[in-house]
Write a structure and sequence with these properties.
By secondary structure, the chain is an alpha+beta fold. Bound molecules: ligand GNR and nickel (II) ion. Ligand GNR binds next to β1, β4 and α2.
């Protein structure tokens, strides 16, 4: 495993729409492992592949309840209820800011075995998943400060 270099704001990869993963190859499995190591080392509660310079639709989240790995994640539903809370980002050192997010969401995607999974998330997990999926679309929390 390896700790990867985290790209910071100003790097164009963070503003690029990431590409779908077509096949969960050994390279993708190694990337998942390296992203996890990088996230825990940082430490952060989530990481998206563009943050390590890879423009693919892969996210990881661990808010303390175990690691979630999602390939080609898509938000399938969002609650009307929203809430505002502080966020930070490994790609934006030394900045925090308030962001409005949906309180609950459902996210579909593939796990590392290529199985379709659906996650129902609320609160911080919902926030972290939305933050990571934004990274796949070239969006950063500083674009959406309230
Ligand atoms: O470590 C992180 N903390 C965090 C706090 C509130 C909302 C989102 C996050 S994600 C962030 C790690 C990161 O930059 N992931 O892309
Ligand atoms: Ni981030």
């Amino acid at each position: 495993m390896a700790i990867l270099n985290i790209r910071e704001i100003g790097d164009p990869v963070l503003r690029t729409e990431a590409k779908e993963v077509e096949e969960i190859s050994d390279n993708i499995l190694r990337l998942l492992d390296d992203m996890a190591e990088t996230m825990y080392d940082a430490p952060g509660i989530g990481i998206a592949a563009p943050q390590v310079g890879i423009s693919k639709r892969i996210i990881l989240v661990d808010i303390g309840d175990g690691l979630i790995e999602l390939i080609n994640p898509e938000i399938s539903s969002r609650s009307n209820k929203t809430y505002i809370d502080q966020e930070g980002c490994l790609s934006i050192p030394n900045q925090m800011g308030d962001v409005k997010r949906n309180y609950t969401i459902r996210v579909k995607g593939l796990n590392r075995d290529g199985e379709e999974v659906e996650i129902k998330a609320k609160g911080l997990l919902s926030r972290a998943l939305q933050h990571e999926i934004d990274h796949l679309n070239g969006k950063l929390f500083v674009d959406q400060l309230v």
